[in-house]
């Protein structure tokens, strides 16, 4: 029997033991270090330092490009699987930079929970806040890790207040730090009444754990200096009075987050956090889909593509589609229907990512992430199923916030440019619009950095130097409504109309006033800033 709070006893044990989650944090809070310690305790790597390159590589744009070039690293890190006790953890990587927030949003559609890492000295930072809001849109359960407690940190009550105020979520301490900065000696584990003491000498050693019989246990005084003990008892008294107790149901609906304090670099608090993920989970959740939702325990396998990574090997234009399995027990070689095209597909070479290696996946269960190499058939939002034609819903595409025109350095290479752009659009790396008047393309992204990454990738992967330049438009909206109304609208607004890579009609403008006018003058037409990918 698993030691967890599985509230769906009908789940087969193989599914109930899966935990699929992402880590969200502001750069530098310690996501990479924490990931590394997860892998270390999960037995997936032997030594800390093996995933280090990635955290550092992300810091600057040129390093970012170097990382992108070295697709091997970034891909194997997109989803990592490892075992922890009797559980299987699937950790899905989220891009660290806010310019890639759409990608992050989609990644978060593939997980059942998120771990939010904050720096104890800095509290809630801008990127944490943004990513948290994305989690909130999906009511994802959040577990919080307050890192770097070995250094001077802020007052703990102040940190908790800040989380509650800025993120509008209740916080319950799962552990409580003893001492601060240089005097930090460890934590009191509130959930299990234990004392966890940090070993500063050996960074990879798991903390010493001492079972305590409540706060009056004389054993405490043997390990905690008198002044720190007094403060701990006072603090915990206040915690009991002021803060809600742990409640798995409230965590599951995203309104309460348990917080652990620790120091990832010293391997401290990490194991307790992992135990929290194991215990509170949650296990693979029910997936929204059309025309009905998908239960993980269904015997027919269904999965959906939430990310596509292209040109992993620039010599062969191959791509890997990352698929989150929503139900069933997948076996290699299985024949599934590609719902969008209604075509059968045999999945013969699926891969799973175990730390830095990718391996052929002989089998996988609901909750797992598998990579399917393909030649472009699989797009973000696609559903694959063994059963009836279900379509996973809720994977959005957002209207871009920045638009620019793009031109090939060599005008004779316009066709190549089109091919490259379409590919990036399908990968979800950018929006590409073809205006109905004139030639050329307009590219839309969320953050400026994406233009730079695109230009470098087009040059690197297609040998095509390109120039991005100012566009007369600043906003894009998808046009919805009944066909006749949309056609009539498009005919009378030709200079504003373009098509996206799926052929859907888009209205381009630079004025909010225009958008308001359309809404007023064309009541049968709706302009939307999101569209569902399918
Ligand atoms: P990120 O992925 O969220 O960007 O953060 P990362 O893990 O790369 O950590 C950022 C910096 O914080 C690193 O220092 C890392 O060593 C340090 N760090 C992580 N956890 C802790 C902790 O518990 N305590 C302390 N004191 N520091 C921590 P760096 O100097 O940028 O890199 P490095 O030279 O240590 O590799």
UniProtKB/TrEMBL annotation:
PROSITE patterns: G_TR_1 (PS00301), G_TR_2 (PS51722)
Gene3D superfamilies: P-loop containing nucleotide triphosphate hydrolases, Peptide chain release factor 3, domain III, Translation factors
UniProt-listed GO biological process terms: regulation of translational termination
Keyword annotations of the record: Cytoplasm, GTP-binding, Nucleotide-binding, Protein biosynthesis
This protein's record includes keyword Nucleotide-binding: yes
Main localisation: cytoplasm
Similarity annotation: Belongs to the TRAFAC class translation factor GTPase superfamily. Classic translation factor GTPase family. PrfC subfamily.
Protein name per its UniProtKB record: Peptide chain release factor 3
Lineage: Bacteria, Pseudomonadati, Pseudomonadota, Alphaproteobacteria, Rhodobacterales
Gene: prfC
